[in-house]
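>> received
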Amino acid sequence: MAEGSFVALGERGVLVVSGEDRRGFLQGLISNDVEKIGDGRAIHAALLTAQGKYLHDFFVAAVTLAGLGETLVLDGEAARLADLQRRLSLYRLRAKVSLAVADLAVFAAFGEAAPQALGLAAEPGAARPLAGGVAFVDPRLAALGVRLIAPREAGEAALRAAGFAVADFAAYDRLRLQHGVPDGSRDLPVEKAILLEAGFDELNGVDWQKGCYIGQELTARTKYRGLIKKRLMPVRVAGALPPPGTPVMLDGQEAGEMRSGQDGIALALLRLEAVASAAASGEALQAGDTRLTPVKPDWARF
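>> returned
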């Protein structure tokens, strides 16, 4: 009996950070604490502008690769991986570090028993070597299953051997949407989005105790001054799915904007005041002719 499903995430790519300064190099740039990463732990993090706006997000894990020894691998958006490499390279200066795109595949394995089937504790970020790469429970939310970064054939063989059946991307995407978790630049406009509006800290992507990183001052100010007035959240869609960017309206006033979605579920960036007003009055949020019902994710603290 299958333990769950798996999908090869063709829209993801892998950037390898190697060299003796790899940890210190990333530590001063990204939103999470690189020192948490080890054989048993992976993290999720973001690279921001100096003004604290979103540029890239990615998973970071430790992998030992032939000829390179221990490296840090970044699982990011394939279409934007060259931009991530370029931006990180700007800060390399004299650091003993190399950045290279790797011929490794990224898989997602999901289902209630997914971590157990792959020998992992069902805790966000729990990791272990597998199939010449690394498997780790999604650091954002354990309910999203396990990610595997490995050579394509070896990774697929390992997942099949563990009892997983092939699924299509839509099945995994629905799971993500139901839990209200953003998918990179599909949901976070580059150089515009604010991490905390997407629950990035609640999804374990920000470490508030680490030292400085790019955009850290403004991210911290947003948190401690309570400046979050909008949140990205799931919405149930009654009608045709509105395309990303469609304005969300309440009583003739703009209340937010649609993001990614499918099959009656989507994400939308909504003004919290409008969500509260709609709940109190019973009036519907609308995107065009489509009625929307906001759903607060279990993990969210707003």
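>> The longest strand covers residues 54-65.
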